[in-house]
């Protein structure tokens, strides 16, 4: 990682991630949503959140190209870092960068398989709070390891006056740059997947802008522990809690169809 940082090496940063993050469960367990990897009722095909995203205009085919790098139970230390890195704990940017670096080493080939070819560009989900993309902490986090990744480009911008919905996409939330997007295979990086409405609004805008394919890569998938317990899905929590995040043993969680 470039620049001065509080870790002696990227391996030290990766070790922190390994101590705090949880591995993404593979699809197949009846309580794992096959789209966002959150918990679901075993009698349904997907979780409530992904069903709402689909009803708002997200094709299930696009939802199949959502691949979180890690799981972040809330409350939990890793989820806390996802919240604090934007403000009180900027050093945590290096941990996000380390997680992304590890995932791209492990997942480049399956990502290319999912996209139908080589990755042309990477971008981040823009802030809707009036912050320039290049000034966002997520952009700066990715930039720390950008020399090892496909080109990082500001392909999306937030549209002033538009608001993000909780469980539905807003097709007007972001605008893409058609000259940079058309015909490209793009990886869209999100810091934390909560309901997915922001990331999927961005993916939708990229597809409308002419992208050949988009894959959404959240660094963490938030898990609201209290809600999961309320719905009697303890087996799902046990599955996640038993999954150790190991940078050299990251498994692609989707079938390579």
Main attributes of the structure:
257 residues; 4-stranded parallel beta sheet; two-stranded antiparallel sheet; 10 helices
Averaged pLDDT: 94
- Tell me the radius of gyration: 17 Å
CATH class: Alpha Beta
* Assembly state (oligomeric): single chain
Order of helices and strands: HHHEHHEHEEHEHEHH
Number of domains: 1
Helix- and strand-based class? Answer: alpha/beta
Topology, please?
Elements: H1 10-20, H2 48-55, H3 60-63, E1 71-74, H4 77-84, H5 93-115, E2 121-124, H6 137-143, E3 156-158, E4 174-176, H7 178-181, E5 185-193, H8 197-208, E6 213-224, H9 225-230, H10 234-241
Parallel strand pairs: 1-6, 2-5, 5-6
Antiparallel strand pairs: 3-4
Helix pairs in contact: 1-5, 5-6
Q: Gist?
A:
The chain is α/β, with parallel strands linked by helices and 257 residues long. The protein contains 10 helices and 6 strands; from the N terminus they run αααβααβαββαβαβαα.
